[in-house]
Each structure stands twice: as C-alpha cells, then as structure tokens.
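Hey,

The postdoc asked me to send both predictions to you directly instead of through the lab channel. I've kept everything plain text so nothing gets mangled by the mail client. Protein one:
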Amino acid sequence: MVLLVRNVLLNILISFQKRFTFPFLEKKTPEDTILKKGSVAIITGGSGGLGLEIVKRLTSRNVTCIILDVIPPNVRFKKEEKVIFYRCDISSIHQVKKVHRDIRKRNERISLLINNAGITCVKPLIEMTNQEIKKIIEVNFIGAYGMIETFLPDLMRDNDKCYIVNIASVLGLISPANLTGYGASKAGMIAVHKSLASSLKNCKEGHKIRTLLVCTGKIKTTMFETVPTPSSILAPDIDPSELAKLIIHSIDNNLEHTLKEPYYVNLVPFFKMLDRPYIALLKRFSGMNQATSN
C-alpha cells in the first residue's frame, strides 16, 4: 500500500509538471521530425472531433493529410492545405483495401498512420443488440487492426522513419456502466498496440517505426456530448485541440510512450491494483457510473 501511494503521488507530480510547463521552456521542433513538407499522414475519423484537430495542426506544417471517414470534413481547407478525403468505413476491410490501392496508385509515401476513428453506444448491456456491439468492435478495434495490417508493409518499405499512433481511452483500462462495447474495444486497442510495439522491436525493419498510444479521458466532442462530466476537478474533460497539440509534440520529439491525458488517467493503473470493493468505491466517488446511467 505504501508503494501504491508513493507511485500515485509521483504520477500526480509528473502530470502537473507536464501540464504547467512554461512555454519558453518548451523545445523547438527537432530537425529530424517526420512532420515536414512533403510528408503524408493518414487519419481515420479525421472529419471531426480530435481527428479534425490533428488534421488542422498537420496541414499547418505542410503535411499532406489523407482522411478516411464516413462523412467529409465539416470545414473548408485553404487551397494550399493538402487534404485528401476518402469516404471509407474502416470496419469493411474491402473498403480499406480499395483505399490502399488508390493511395498506392497516387505514389503517396505514408509516414504517419493515426488510428482515431471510433463510435460508441451508451446503453445497459442487456439492452444492446448484437449488431450494436458488433459494429463498435468492428470500427474501434477490428477496423484499426485492419488499417495496421494493410499499411504496415508500406510503412516499413517506404520510409527510414515513420509513426503509428493509436487513439485508445482510459475506458479501456477501467470501464463504467453502460459502455461495455466501447470499453472492450479500447481494451483491445491497447492490447494490439502493446503487441505491435513488441513485435516491431524483434523485426528486421521494425526499428523504422515508432509507436504512440494515446489513453485519454473524456474529450469535448460530439461522441460523448450526452454524457455529463461527473467531476470537473477529479475527471475534467480535455479539449481536442490541446490533445492534438500534445500528440504532435510527442511525434515531433520521437517519443514512444503512452500519452495519458488529463492528469487522472495516470492514476488509473494504480487504482486497478486495489481490491474490487475499493475500485467500486472509487467509481462511486468519481461519479463515472452515474454519468453513463443518466
């Protein structure tokens, strides 16, 4: 228990230090970053929310962005901003393969793959249909896996250095009531990411690819707009633009880690070490189950 408390306090300090670093202490963009003019990035679910904020930041750096989504972006980009949209449901491997063939025909050399697409359904388990939970798993988990499986050979063959970023969620670590499918899909994403990172370390060309896992709390987007924030102090929402900035910063600095935002996400792995009654008490205290039960 002493070790647990020490680790929790240490993670709180690290999180706050990172959050309140003064701007003039931040490093300049490294010269060896992959995010430069001529680079090409694929962003699934890039037409809105976090995905769109990432696209905006990448295009400001003259990175060509290929968006895969079921709807087009809800903003207009400037003529000089290179944005290519493919209407693609990533839960269909046939659609993913078709987009892949089109990209290869364009001779685009992908240096960044961001698996961001996701859907959810806030319902009690006994009220969910098999089709609803199947669709969540197919988009959030199998779809992301299919993107990696399809584009990984190109990433390894065409680049000296590239990145795969997987957007998971704190709900893949500790899931509240009524988000069974979403929590399960994000837990699967976390497991796939860890396995991928380990596999690349033992692969001949694996050193070319860096991986970044993003475990985030509730983001201020339309996905969870019907779910109230249980506590703005204990579990504050995170602004998608700020999260996009942190993701770009990690890529710029060649970091391979798990980006956990906001601060409380750093504490969840340690809370999971507690016995079940204490976890139930923490869930009740945080209000997470009540928030998804309204």
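Protein two:
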Amino acid sequence: NLMMQQALVPINLRWSHATNTLALIDYALAGEGVHFIEADVCYDAAVGPYMAHAATDITTLLEKHQNSFLSWLDYLTKKRTSLSQPGLKLDFKMAEAVRPSIDRLLQARYPVWLNADILKGPRGFDPVFDAAEFIQAGLRHPNATLSLGWTTGVVKRGADSIGYSKEMIDE
C-alpha cells in the first residue's frame, strides 16, 4: 500500500512509541500516517508475555492478564484497516518473552521488527539476553527484521561522553 511504499524512505517513517495498551493502539491508529507501532514486552510465568516497558510498571497478576501480549496483538490485528496498516516493532525486555511471542507472530501478515539489547554498550549493564539465542529465535519468523541493540547507561552531567568502542561494534 502507499503508506508502506512511503515507509521505504527511512526519514519518512512515523512511529508510535511505547504503545503498550489497547487505548494507545486506538490513539496511534486514529492519528495520521503511523507506519510502525512500537511496544514493549515483558514476561511473567503465570501470564506469559505481557505489555509493559519494565516489569515494575505492572505489579498485579490482574493487570498483567489485562495487558497480555495475546490480547494486545489480537486487538491490534482487528483494528488494522485498509487505510491504517502499520507494521509492528516489539522491544523485548525479558528473554523469556521472546519465543512465545514469536510463536504467535508467525500468523502476522504485516511487517514485524524484533528488538532486544543483546550486547553491552557504553556504560551499559550486562544484557539479559543470550545474543545467539535471540537471533536464532528471531530467524524463526521468516518475515521479521531483527533490530539488535546495546545496553547503555546514564551519562552524568559533566562526565566525559564515551561512544561505542571498536570491540563493541566488532562483537
């Protein structure tokens, strides 16, 4: 469709970030020309994957059930129309969420990006993902784009800014 043709020029991409609730899906789709919906995925053993930027954002099982990845994805799929067919970028926050989410995404009929911070970056913490396992899991989805990132830390005011080292990039 025309919207995705325009999206082939990266500067034209419009994103809806942290679209982790059904209300935020409605808001994103009501706007003009959102090409990709980005959302964050956590995991709870009792619930499975659920939508939250951090595990501490949602603390009760009821809230986790209400924000389950399955209900979120079903809602998004039903809301997509011929006029608004954004792709999906999932930002995985917990390694346990990856495989069950990808299993469900195999039915998706639209562009999917899978993101995780799999490498340690400047001032970063150790990743919660095994890089090879994330890549292997992501490759199970034949139409997904893998978006691989580095963990980063906070740069305090007045501190020297450090960038990515050659070793980080080569890894």
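Summary for protein two, as requested: The chain has one domain: 2-152+163-170.

Thanks,
C.
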